[in-house]
Amino acid sequence: MPVSLPDLPLLTLPTVADAAAPRLLMLYTGGTVGMAVNKRRELVPMPFDKLDRLMPELRQLAYHIELLALPEPIDSSNVTPADWLLLAQLIGQHYADFDGFVVLHGTDTMAYSAAALSFLLEHLGKPVVFTGAQLPVGRTRSDATRNLLTALEIAAARHPGTSTMRLPEVGLFFDDILIRGTRAKKVESQQFAAFKSENYPPLARAGITLTFADKDIRPLPAARLRVHERLAENVAVLRLFPGITAAVVEAVLGVPGLRGCVLETYGSGNAPTAPWFLDCLEKARQRGVYVLNVSQCQEGRVVQGHYETSARLSSLGVIGGDDITSEAAITKLMFVLGLGLGEAETRRLLSHDLRGEITPQ
After folding, report:
1. Which of 344, 317, 319 is nearest to 332 (CA)?
2. Among residues 32, 109, 150, 346, which one is catalytic?
3. Would you list the DSSP string of 296-317?
4. How far apart are CA 26 and CA 46, in angstroms?
5. pLDDT tens digits, residue range 259-283?
6. Domain 235-351 grouped into CATH 3.40.1190.20
7. Any catalytic annotation for residue 131?
8. Other Cβ atoms within 10 Å of 281 Cβ, number
9. What tens digit of pLDDT does each residue of 163-178 get?
10. Is the terminal CB of the chain with fewer CB neighbours within 10 Å at N or C?
């Protein structure tokens, strides 16, 4: 599903950068971080040509910064795979001209978008940092300025004494921590600490100084960037709960044209052993549906066969997702199925780490 790239103008922001300073591109997609409060205390879209007035700290940055805004801001609840493909292609289009990228995004689905871009941007060698805000610019105690300024600092960071960028992967920065794009999960809607890094330590922390955990950051790739252009959208998520009925499971796994399903199980990958449930999984396998087993526990790891209640899953073709998040699992399914590979290679990719989404045991 390749998407056509719109002809979008770049807006240059005034800074104190010299000729050798890092060049950064901000991509605005929508969300609270792109809103401001006017003189009548009304919430309105931010006038980006006056961004340096709303955030005067930007003028003090020693980076070249340009901004590219999508024609229509997208509420993050309306984000679709087509938007992920567009963002990936825009980054690919401008990849040679910039040292780092900052994506301004709504918080509700930011973790999904960060995971999707992680998979679409193969062999990424430059920072792509997602950030947003809980409160818009102009509101008392808004977190928008701090999040944006720190995201820009992360995107511009180089290893000391070199021109090598510090973060050659997709990250999500929010409220003082930088999270790998495939490990982020939104856990708060009322506090500034809206995201957590699941099953993996933060890649950086922002205190008085910005401290990177270099040993936990992915190495610089040897190959050139490859921007993928396809995602399979015919996937689903099935979350188990006590009392779930055969009709519910059959309705999800029996969706016409379904190619993949994230099965959110209990504990270390456990599921009911009722004959009707196992029969539903068997029918899905026969129809060629790939089922990826993910734990409902936020710090969980799937170990199929560890208990009797998960022993049958492997024989029914269910793929263990190890410690992957649900957000990364659904976007990984879309990505891998979009590659159009054979069954053996599809299963291998789904069960192995591609972008730091799984911790090797």
Report:
1. 319
2. 32
3. SSTT----TTSSHHHHHHHHTT
4. 14
5. 999 999 999 899 999 999 999 999 9
6. no
7. no
8. 22
9. 899 999 999 999 999 9
10. C
